[in-house]
Amino acid sequence: MSRPTTTASAGASASEQGVPAARSGTEVHAHRWTWQHADRDAPAVSELDLHIRPGEKVLLAGPSGAGKSTLLHGLAGVLHGEDATSSGRLLLNGLSPEEARGLAGLVQQDPESQVVLSRLGDEVAFAAENLAVPREEIWRRVKRCAAAVGLDEYPLERPTAALSGGQKQRLALAGILAMEPGLLLLDEPTANLDPQGVEQIRDAVISAADATGATLVVVEHRLGVWAEHVDTLIVLQPGGGVSRRVPASAVGEDEQLRAELAAMGLWVPGIDPLQQAADVAGAVGDRWLSARSAARIADAADQVDSPRGVDVLHGADSLHRADLLRGEQLAVSRVSPRKSWRRAAAPAPVLSGVDITVRAGEAVGITGRNGAGKSTLLLTLAGLLARHGGTLCASDQLRGEAASSDPHQWSAGELIARIGMVFQEPEHQFVASTVAQELALSARQAVRPGSGEPLFTPEQVEQRVADLLRRLNLEQLSQANPFTLSGGEKRRLSVGTALAAGPSLLLLDEPTFGQDARTFAELIALLREHLDSGGSLCAVTHDEAFLRALNATEHDVGSLSGSGCGADSGAPSSRPAGAQESGEEATGALRAPEAPAVQAQPSAAGEDGGLPMLRGAKDQSWLGRRNALAKLIALVLVTCALVMTIDWVSSAVVILASFLLLPAAGIRISTFLGRIWPFAVGAVVAVWGTAIAGDESGRVLLDLGFTTVSEGSLALGAALGTRAFAIVLPSVIVFSTTDPTDLADSLAQQLRLPSRFVLGALAAMRLLGLLAQHWTTLGHARRARGLGARGGAGGRLRATLSQAFGLLVQAIRMATRLAVTMESRGFGAGPRTWARPAGFTAADAPVILVGAFIAAAAVGAAMAAGAWNFVWT
Amino acid sequence: MTHDSARPAGASVSAPATAARYPQRARTFRWSVSDIVVASTLAVASGVIFWGWNLSYHFVGTLFAFYPPVETLVHGMWLFPAALGALIIRKPGAAIYCEMVAASVSALLGSQWGLTVLSSGFMQGLGAELIFLLFLYRRFTLDVAMLAGAGAGLAGGVTYHWIIPMYAYAPLETAIHIGSFALSGAVIAGLLPWLATRGLAATSVLSPLASRRAHQESAFGVGRVRP
Q1: Which of A185, A252, A699, B76 gives 20 to 30 Å between its CA and that of B176?
Q2: Domain housing A668
Q3: Which of A37, A46, A73, A80 to mutate against chain B (most B CBs within 10 Å)?
Q4: Are residue A418 and residue A540 in the same domain, yes or no?
Q5: Is residue A445 part of a domain?
Q6: B14 touches chain A (CB under 8 A)
Q7: Chain B (117-156) residues lying within 8 Å, Cβ to Cβ, of chain A
Q8: Which residues in chain B have Cβ-Cβ distances shorter than 8 Å to A695?
């Protein structure tokens, strides 16, 4: 495994055999280092003394709130001091983290906020550019580092959006390896990944560290993933300091250490968190578990020990357990099966032929490989997506007085009183400003089917809220803003918001993703309680422990025939035939753990080309290959000519020229017409506006009393309308053939606009697709909270506003994480180089000339026709 | 240019103890990476909202067919990124930057005004920016936010009629057109962004930014109100 490490002296001397160039490992020192974030009452890290040897591999653990992430961010040089207080020193090879820029590379938890640019090669090059590495050397490093993490099977042009979560994490690793760092920092890099992705990123990290000799510090809840592969375990304690520093092998041997770690809520190999939680609660009366949930956990633990536990418990009714919800030959898709003006044909389902039944008092686990359509199936079962085919039928018991047996037809209030949905990202479900209001909202929104009467009286609502706050152990936090809770608290609250409406069926999407062992145990206790009271549940999960703890029936959708067909629309054909990524890659899995509305995106964007910038692939037409600035200059010239005058002749010239240019842009006339017809409608509106609001001149054609339409005002309106239409056509042509990355390169390198801002905007543009997915998911989540359509106009407005606000929160959350990613890759702190040169070539001259010619022809024709009507007079 | 290598003051040393008490005085006006990426993301998202709004405006616009000069009562929708960006980032240039980027993105996606949205975006952003400058980037209260929204509308109206003329209205109609724009700006692009900023601050997502305490500030005063 370990290879001889060559010494520093930049990459030039590095080997070309797929091994990242080596720089000896960085030494880390902390001397009484303290950091207190702005507006916090206590320091995140206090008086820390720490020494990590060059090349040492460290697993950093500790209970939540021990400052692990703060320490990693400090080492990565991304902590900032405005309003924060700090003291002591943190040193990398004797330098402060700011001085040691480029020495440390950071990989964070969320794969989505690890990707800055839209193409694989550019992404790997980004950090090296920020460190001003020469261009030729950048591309050498890109190839080497992509190979080192196993991504060299893809072309460098591959859109990053087409990578799975695990691949994105390896891409992030490649990006920091291209900095040739001496210190690799990983902050829960595998928390959002499925088991297969976890091993791949772990192996890539270890082999990179071995190959380069870099020091490694990894923070992780699941100690088993790393313990056998690292040298040292360091345990931080809340309030400051190191409580343990032992060889990592002790995780498997030292019983006292194991017990300590488990008590912190960490996943210790060989320790069942349920048993652990029960023991701890029983022995010491733990402060984080109410006596009631402790008893619940103990129950759950007992039942896991005896596999027949559930049947014993429900012995009486297990024989005639009734079906609650039954799907037969279900076909599901994110994209609505209805036709629309955007789409000629109904989209292919992502998953079809599913037979699934959920019975009263039963737990069902939906499993299967990534991208198989599990989340889509769950949303369909939850009545949030319309089914594409087959039948979905709620039993009379579940349906009650509802008019239809298809949950999708129920009003939001009827739905939540029957089927509760817990989304993978708890924040998607939050709509109120306090925890208590959040719970009360669900209870108030629940209605009796048929009559539409509230299900609970105000007194009952109050009672339910009080009751749930206690069960969720959130009493102390009842007035806190839901978004400010910790990860585990948010997870409990999201389950609570579903339970508050009193559903008998609870659906959950990956409820244990990224959770520590303590939250896991609490969650199991809650769900156990729901099952014991006669409720049912159905969860999409990768988590074996979760299935076992609930004695769930497993329903594997990955093995179904027909699954995955149609999900492939997002994977460009550039994928090599021998792609190895069987599981996560087979569907072009664009799987975003936080925003599961994935498969809808590429097809929606690709079909009508509505959002060209989301495509990620370069336009290959003649115009598409030209320099972006040249196209922009041509566009400015034509636009200026039109803006100077209000007449229909110059506009007509530009409209004609635009249609003549379509072949050069590789745009079919039907596609073009499909995109511009709304603008023609807008032009007609503009004609009317001026016709009645313009100065009266000539014969009056129409007298409305308060205003008139005259010959003069109508002619002026017609000229303005034609001009409005003419202005938009060239920009549609230019922008639909221009790649945002190319445009940004040109703006920064040729126009010399501030590169920090240009690249910031470019990075934000990549988030667009994600924001679109969040928007869709937030919409589903509103309905799952009892808001939205069929709730009256007021309800709809409220749902839309809360959806918009939810999107703002997610946008800023993503942006701040992305900023950390960018800064940890050296962005924004010094001169940079550009991996992609932007400059004019001889082939760009015709672009500008054609633009100038069209502008001149428009002006000339207007003057010749005597229609010239200069605006600034 | 941005290659200024200076780190923000206080990046590596601890902030003075007084910083906590007088946050606005101790602030630097240099944009951090977080400022840039958050502003960009807000602006890009706004650009997409513009794009959707542009499309629906083809129909919304016809609602004013009886008297087109008052159509600007809903044009504040094109102004909100200016105040939203400024209120959240609280650094010079935020209003212009957000409005410009939002306009550019809507142009990239295809807007009915083509490239001219760049000039209107700049002018509208400038209208809001000047108001925040007037208060030296120290006040981000409700009144200032609404003034900024109105400023953006005023500048937008001036652009419509004299800078890049898109209308040929009679004088009275022109005055009504611009006045409605300013009013719309004050509400849609002043009041709403101010409320949104407070809501966001309460969720703690603004913690890396200068507006992190917006929800604790009083609506009109400069002082802070404890929750």
Answers
A1: A699
A2: 623-738+843-864
A3: A80
A4: yes
A5: yes
A6: yes
A7: none
A8: 168-170
| Closest CA of chain A from B4, distance in Å | 7
A613 located within any domain: no
Please state, in angstroms and rounded to a whole number, the distance separating the CA atoms of residues A41 and A36.
8
Say if residue A436 is in the same domain as residue A540: yes
Task: Read off the tokens for A410.
Answer: 């129920």
Say if residue A779's pLDDT is above 80: yes
A444 with A544, same domain? yes
Taking the CA of residue B102 and the nearest CA in chain A, the distance in Å comes to 10
Residue A384's CB: how many other CB atoms inside 10 A? 23
- A514 and A420 within one domain: yes
In chain A, which residues have their Cβ closer than 8 Å to the Cβ of B69? 693
pLDDT digits (tens, 9 = 90+) for A175-199: 999 999 999 999 999 888 877 788 8
How near does any CA of chain B get to the CA of A763, in Å?
8
User: Looking at beta carbons, which residues of chain B come within 8 Å of A772?
Assistant: 48
CB–CB contact B112 A679 (8 Å): yes
Would A646 be classed as within a structural domain?
yes
Q: Which of A495-499, A705-709, A860-864 has the lowest mean pLDDT?
A: A705-709
Whether residue A809 and residue B205 make contact (CB cut-off 8 A), yes or no, is yes
For residue A759, being part of any structural domain is answered with no
Q: Is the dihedral of CA A144, A150, A154, A158 positive or negative?
A: negative
Q: Which residues contact A66 (CB under 8 A, 6 or more apart)?
A: A236, A237, A238
Q: Do A81 and B13 touch (CB under 8 A)?
A: yes
- How many CB pairs below 8 Å do chains A and B form together? 260
On whether any CB of chain A is under 8 Å from the CB of B42, the answer is yes
| Statement to judge: residues A702 and A553 lie in one domain | no
Number of domains in chain A: 2
Tokens standing for B6? 């200076």
Q: Which residue has the tokens 């929708």?
A: B77
Shared-domain flag, residues A482 and A410: yes
A654 and A543 together in one domain: no
Give tens-digit pLDDT for A53-95. 999 999 999 988 888 999 999 999 998 877 788 899 999 999 9
Domain boundary (A559, A594, A613) is at: A559
Of A333-342, A447-456, A832-841, A857-866, the range with the lowest mean pLDDT is A333-342
- The CATH number of the domain holding residue A425 is 3.40.50.300
* Interval A517-530 mean pLDDT: 90
Q: Of the candidates A534, A559, A584, which is a domain's last residue?
A: A559
Residues A366 and A477 in one domain: yes
- Residue to test with chain A: of B2, B29, B41, B205, most A Cβ within 10 A: B41
- Please enumerate in sequence order all residues whose Cβ is within 8 A of that of A356, keeping only pairs 6 or more positions apart, or say none: A326, A327, A330, A364, A366, A377, A381, A555
The pTM of the full predicted model, rounded to 2 decimals, is 0.86
Structural domains in chain B?
Answer: 31-216 (1.10.1760)
B92 touches chain A (CB under 8 A): no
| CA–CA dist A303, A368 (Å, integer) | 26
Closest CA to A632 of A746, A723, A755, A762: A746
